[in-house]
Amino acid sequence: MDRDETRLRISREAARLFLERGVAETGGDAIAAAAAVSTRTVWRHFRNKESCIEPVLVTSIQRFARIMDEWPLDVSLEDHLRIAMPVGGESPRLIADGTLAVKLVALCAQEPDIRAIWLDAYHLLEVRFHAVIARRSNRSTLDFDVRMCAATIVAAIRIIDQAISIAAVSGGQSYAAVELAELMSGAIRKAATLPVCDPVPRAIFRFAAGDRAGADRA
User: Fold this and answer.
1) Cα separation of 78 and 40, whole Å?
2) Which of 58, 91, 126, 191 suits a disulfide with 156, CB 3.0-4.6 Å?
3) Which residue range or ranges hold the HTH tetR-type domain (predicted)?
4) Taking all residues of the chain, what is their mean pLDDT, rounded to a whole number?
5) How confident is the model at residue 214 (pLDDT cuts 50, 70, 90)?
6) Does the structure show a pLDDT above 60 at 207?
7) What span, in angstroms and rounded, lies between the C-alpha atoms of 115 and 217?
8) Which domain CATH number covers 124?
9) What is the DSSP letter of 106?
10) Is residue 109 very low, low, confident or very high in pLDDT (cuts 50, 70, 90)?
11) Within a domain: residue 154?
12) Residue 182 belongs to some domain of the structure
C-alpha cells in the first residue's frame, strides 16, 4: 500500500470514528486499530489526530479547485460549471468519501477541531484562486483587488458548502449536479468583486496565457 492509500485508509477510519464518537472521545490508538495499522504509522502520516481527517475532508475542495484551474478563458462561469461539475459515474469509493466529507462539514459548527481543518483547506483554495482571478482579470496575483476577489469568492463557496452539507445531513436533502452547478455559480457571481465570470475578451488572451509571470514580478 503506497503513502496516499495509507493516508486515505487512516483518514476514512478517523472520519468514521469522529462521527460516531466525537473528536474528544477518539484517540490515535483507536484510529490505528480501525485502520489496521500501528499507532506509529498514524503519527508518521499525520501530525495529530485531528489532521487525520484532512484527506477525506479536502477531497471535494481539491476537485473543485482543479475544475476552476481548468476554466477556459472564453467560457462563462455558468457554462463551465454546468459542463465540468460531476454528473455521475463516480466510483462507490469516491461517493463514500464524499458522504463522509459532507457529514464532517455539517459538524463544523459543533466540532472546532474539524472546523479548523476545513477552514485551512479553504485557505489553500483561496491561494489557488489568486491565479484563476489574475488570469481572467489581466492582473498580477499580487494585486490587492485580485486577492480581495479570491477571498470573497472562496468565502461564498465555503458558505454554500456548509449550507448544502447541513441540508443533506439534517434535512435529507439531495442535489442533482445541475443544481449544485447553479448554486455554486450563483454564489460566485454574487461574491466576485471583479468582472471575471463572463468570457474574457480575446484581446487579453495573450497576457493570461503567457505574461502572468512578468506581471507578478512587477
Assistant:
1) 47
2) 191
3) 4-64
4) 89
5) very low
6) no
7) 35
8) 1.10.357.10
9) H
10) confident
11) yes
12) yes
Q: How many other C-beta atoms can be found within 10 angstroms of the C-beta atom of residue 38?
A: 12
Helix (H, G, I), strand (E, B) or coil at 56: helix
Is 48 within a domain?
no
Domains contained in the chain, number: 1
Give per-residue pLDDT as tens, 32-68: 999 999 999 999 999 999 999 999 998 889 989 999 9
DSSP state of 123: H
Residue 26 belongs to a domain: no
Is residue 165 packed enough to be buried (19+ CB in 10 Å), middle (13-18) or exposed (0-12)? buried
Task: Count CB neighbours of 39 within 10 A.
Answer: 14
Q: How far apart are CA 127 and CA 111, in angstroms?
A: 25
Residue 151's pLDDT is what?
98
DSSP assigned state of 166: H
Q: How far apart are CA 64 and CA 88, in angstroms?
A: 15
- The SS3 of residue 209 is helix
Burial class from Cβ neighbours inside 10 Å (0-12, 13-18, 19+) for residue 67 reads: middle
Q: Which residue has the cell 462539514?
A: 105
Using the structure block, give the residue that is written with the C-alpha cell 477541531: 113
